[in-house]
Amino acid sequence: MSEQESLYEQIGGEAAVNAAVDIFYRKVLGDARINTFFEDVDMEKQAAKQKAFLTMAFGGPHNYTGLDMRKGHAHLVSRGLNDSHVDAVIEDLGATLRELGVKEELIAQVAAIAESTRNDVLGR
Fold first, then answer.
1. How far apart are CA 25 and CA 4, in angstroms?
2. Worst-scoring range by mean pLDDT, 2-6, 46-50, 105-109?
3. What's 18's domain CATH number?
4. Can you give the pLDDT at residue 67?
5. N or C: which end of the chain has fewer CB within 10 A?
6. What is the pLDDT of residues 79-92, one digit of tens each?
7. d(Cα 69, Cα 5) in Å, to the nearest integer?
8. Residue 4 included in any domain
9. What is the mean pLDDT of the chain?
10. What is the share, in percent, of the chain residues with pLDDT greater than 90?
11. How far apart are CA 117 and CA 98, in angstroms?
12. Going along the chain, which residue ranges are E strands?
């Protein structure tokens, strides 16, 4: 594997991101710590946005057109979104990637990218 390969390519490209998002949202919707934030959300649209965002965040093709993290989550912050919820999301994402057989060093990179959005997600 070359050093030039993006994280997106290393985890398996579009097919891997699509599978990960589908599994991730099943985990999130089953996670009592955070699933209330997804009530009344069109999960098909949400999954499509998440796939585009993760593809971009992992160094793949940039087709994300959603709101920035701060604007996109402000309504959730007003409903009580906090660090414990971000922790749960990162935990569910890591469990998803492990389930798909992604190497731990790549999962650590994904977690670091997710962690880098924490302050914006939480409006700080």
1. 30
2. 2-6
3. 1.10.490.10
4. 76
5. N
6. 999 999 999 999 99
7. 26
8. no
9. 93
10. 87
11. 21
12. none
pLDDT tens-digit map of 22-67 = 999 999 999 999 999 999 999 999 999 999 989 998 999 988 887 7
**Residue 1 located in a structural domain:** no
Residue from 54, 27, 70, 60 nearest 110 by CA: 54
**Domain that residue 29 falls in:** 10-58+68-121
Q: Is 39 left (phi over 0), alpha (psi -120 to 50) or beta?
A: beta
The answer as to whether 109 is a domain residue is yes
pLDDT at 62: 86
Q: Specify if 110 maps to a domain.
A: yes
Q: How far separated are the first and last CA of the chain, in Å rounded?
A: 38
Residue 110: CB atoms within 10 Å: 21
The radius of gyration of the chain from alpha carbons, rounded to an integer in Å, stands at: 14
Amino acid at residue number 16: A
CA dist 67 to 27, 72, 74, 76, 120, Å?
A: 24, 5, 11, 14, 12
Distance CA(78)–CA(6), nearest Å, equals 35
